[in-house]
Write a structure and sequence with these properties.
Order of helices and strands: EHEEHHEEEEHEEEEEHE
Structural class: alpha+beta
CATH topology of the largest domain: Ribosomal Protein L25, Chain P
Strand order of the largest sheet: 1-3-2-6-5-4
Helix content: 10-25%
Distance between the termini: 91 Å
Shape: elongated
CATH class of the largest domain: Mainly Beta
Low-confidence stretches: 192-197
CATH superfamily of the largest domain: Ribosomal Protein L25, Chain P
Number of helices: 5
Number of domains: 2
Number of strands: 13
Largest sheet: 6 strands, mixed, barrel
Strand content: 35-45%
Radius of gyration: 26 Å
Mean pLDDT: 91
């Protein structure tokens, strides 16, 4: 699925220009990388805001339409207002279809409700991490990676190297070495009964 981002070159720069741009319903941004020079851009705020709320927008090769010229990019950063639902700035990086990219891909957790540790053991499933760093060619980038918890017992975990990755996709080197846990099922909490304290002896009558 191709996701196209419409943008225009931004001629005016600086804090004042960016403030006026935001008041006009636009978002300042930049596209960099590759052999071309970085380009300051502007985008429609509402369109970008709704796109950023979609998981796929953060882990997909995007088509940046910049004044009619198209190129492949990745979203690399977005800055938000501290308390308003407002995007302040966005960064895109150009990519080459023949060079591997390094991207965080979201995890989708499946079948936790039928796992033995939950269904018969009464345990509680935990999602320890929700995304992993992978590397691949742009054409092999998955929208997400599945984590099948269907066989997990209480006290057991699934680790990064246990996952079945799509063809052409591999974990970055440090994750392969560290092999962190990504999901687990913890034992059910057991209440501890406490004995009632003995009543204090009655005071002798005077």
């Amino acid at each position: 699925m191709e996701i196209e981002v419409i943008a225009a070159k931004r001629e005016l720069q600086g804090t004042g220009a960016s403030r006026r741009l935001r008041h006009a319903g636009k978002v300042p941004g930049i596209v960099y990388g590759g052999t071309a020079a970085p380009v300051q851009i502007e985008l429609d705020h509402n369109t970008l805001y709704h796109a950023l709320r979609k998981e796929s927008f953060h882990a997909a090769v995007l088509t940046l339409n910049l004044d009619g010229a198209k190129e492949s990019v990745l979203l690399r950063d977005s800055q938000w207002h501290p308390f308003k639902q407002q995007v302040l700035h966005v960064d895109f990086q150009r990519i080459d279809k023949n060079q591997k990219i390094h991207v965080k891909v979201p995890l989708h957790f499946l079948n936790a409700e039928v796992a033995p540790g939950v269904k018969t053991g009464g345990g509680k499933p935990h999602h320890i991490v929700t995304e992993l760093d992978v590397q691949c060619l742009p054409g092999s980038l998955p929208e997400f990676i599945e984590v099948d918890m269907g066989n997990l017992e209480v006290g057991h975990s699934i680790h990064a190297n246990d996952l079945t990755l799509p063809a052409g996709v591999e974990l970055v080197a440090h994750l392969q070495t560290e092999n962190p846990a990504v999901a687990s099922i913890s034992a059910p909490k057991v209440g501890v009964a406490t004995e009632e304290a003995p009543a204090a002896p009655a005071a002798p009558e005077a």
